[in-house]
Amino acid sequence: MKLIGCDVGGTFTDLVLVETEAGTTVIHKVPTTPHDPSEGVLAGMTGLCALAGVAPGEVDHVLHGTTTATNAVLEHDGAVAGLITNSGFRDILHIGRHQRPQHYSIRQEVPWQDRPLVKRRFRKTVGGRIAPPGVELEPLDEAAVAQAARELRDAGVAAIAICFLFSYLDPRHELRARAIVEAECPGLFVTHSAGVSPQFREFERFTTTAMNAFIGPKVGDYVARLEARLAENGFSADLHVMGSNGGAATARMVAELPVATLLSGPAAGIIGGAWAAALSGRRDLITFDVGGTSADIGIVRDGAFAEATARDTAIAGFPVLVPMIDIHTIGAGGGSIAHVDAGGAFRVGPRSAGAVPGPAAYGRGGTRPTVTDANVALGRLDPENFLGGAMSLDIAAARDVVSGLAGDLGLGLEDTADGILRVVNANMANLVRSRTVQKGLDPRSFSLVAFGGGGPLQAVDVAAMLGIPEVIVPPAPGITSAMGLAATDMKYDLVRSVFATSAEPDPARLEGLLSEMQGELTDRLEADGFDEDAMTFERAGDLRYVGQGYELRCAFPASLDADGLAAVFDDFTEQHRREYGRINPGAAIEIVNVRVRGVGAMPVLERPAPPPGGSLAEALVRTAHVAFRVAGAVTRLPTPVYRREALPLDTEIPGPALIVQKDTTSMLRPGDSLVADQGGNLLIRVAQEG
């Protein structure tokens, strides 16, 4: 079976073609086309097939990681959206919870107020009310719904969100309103909250649905355009898109629920990083994905990645109630621009040179110093072996832009370039601390899996700052996210709010609801072509002490009875002790949500054959003079440059050294060492600071 994984980044589009039976892979990398990412995807896929000698029609599956939804939110470049809600609740999207992102700042931005997903003039209210536990207090005013739909259509909205109170208990008003709106406004994107996130917390549920409307037309157009272009160029395989939950979904599902793809690319990266590290027997990991515009980190413990909780799921400051891997991002990548801010502080990022014009070293007109330019100025990127020699670097342009910043700072060129890297590495290390040390985890007990185009170049410095002893560089780090796409399964999630307490346990009711949800997921997977033998289901619930504001996720057994429910409550108690350091013996425990995940097993990505290896003499490209910070001073040292594919296996190689390959460069400082192992990874022992 032949799979293509394609991940669109801010600067490059990364692709991999895997033949599962033969265990062979072919990688490819092309510039991203920001004006229309589907152009770069198509160019990359056709080029990849040509490299592999595979006809487009021979490809069985296409799995795609996209930033279309994410960029629309980050750039606030979505559709003009409308909202229909209950009378008296027009301003839920504006009021929120009276919680400010920064409690004591008087000049902060409140995203849902400063850049609303739905402007107030496009929010309409209608009569009708459902109340707990699903009782109709007032019938839906269908005429008002039709009138609101016409007014929004005539005002030029491209999408309409329907959000009613307590629809997670009974969606009948939302379903009827959706039918009316679709009849009045054919061609518009219409979504409703019970179909997006049937959970309690109306502000978060309304905001998630509004975001689905805000990004829906753009994502739907992109997916449709990409499908059409692939078909026109001979690709007959179905298109699957990575979701934020770490699983792939059909293009049809993504078009209906685009909000589920907000972390599409980063989610694939964590899966790819975990898959690669497992080849070397490593299961406790910090994944470190550095691209052109951002750095993403995720935590993997005992081979399993964490899922974000309701209090942590936010994109660009907007709360989002959809299942997603716990991923955290900062604007720190190869294209991040170094500058002096209005207060005179030296900063790197979050602004990025992106794909166009990109860093000055790319020769596309970039005029601002970036992290890539700093690496070039210090000799850490080989100008003749960048992208396997497919792209040359303009050393003079990189030195010129760094020299300009050096003049502003009153420093030398090399000290300025070193300062750029120290600042960006410190920003990345602080991000890792926020997800480890601040959560009670010791980063020194993890391995750092470095990938993306920039990860292996920055990883040893970041690891040394954190005391992490080992860096793992996957076989193809620049396309690890694309490898993650090829290593994932189809996944669908359902969630329902239930409100059941340990004081009045009712396992039969919960089991009935869980079985109903599992049946719905079975139907979805069967529609995707999976038989029962290829399906697995995972059950879980969100629990808290009665009166608490947030929950902890606990696994449920495959069949829930009284004993199984008691075990779930015991699990919650232990999780609460670990998370908060205390428990509340005798207090009632409440199940607020139940969850079921359906997984359709895709073809297994086999362990790749180990590289043939060679000798250091065969691997040596040349000796460069690379700048490192030694004893507090930036010093140029003779540094061997090796071809990765020719490195001898299971042989310790001392630093300093640069390891070049088509999709990235890995760096060892003086004192570091590496071993190329049988799993295809580079295992770097990191010399610790001090």
UniProtKB/TrEMBL annotation:
Q: Name one GO biological process term.
A: glutathione metabolic process
| SUPFAM superfamilies xref list | Actin-like ATPase domain (SSF53067)
- Domain Acetophenone carboxylase-like C-terminal as annotated: residue spans: 512-678
Q: What domain of life does the native source organism fall in?
A: Bacteria
Q: Where is the Hydantoinase A/oxoprolinase domain?
A: 205-492
Give the molecular function GO annotations: 5-oxoprolinase (ATP-hydrolyzing) activity
Q: Which residues form the Hydantoinase/oxoprolinase N-terminal domain?
A: 4-184
Q: Name one GO cellular component term.
A: cytosol
The record ties this protein, via PANTHER family, to: 5-OXOPROLINASE RELATED (PTHR11365), HYPOTHETICAL 5-OXOPROLINASE (EUROFUNG)-RELATED (PTHR11365:SF23)
Report the protein name in the record. N-methylhydantoinase A
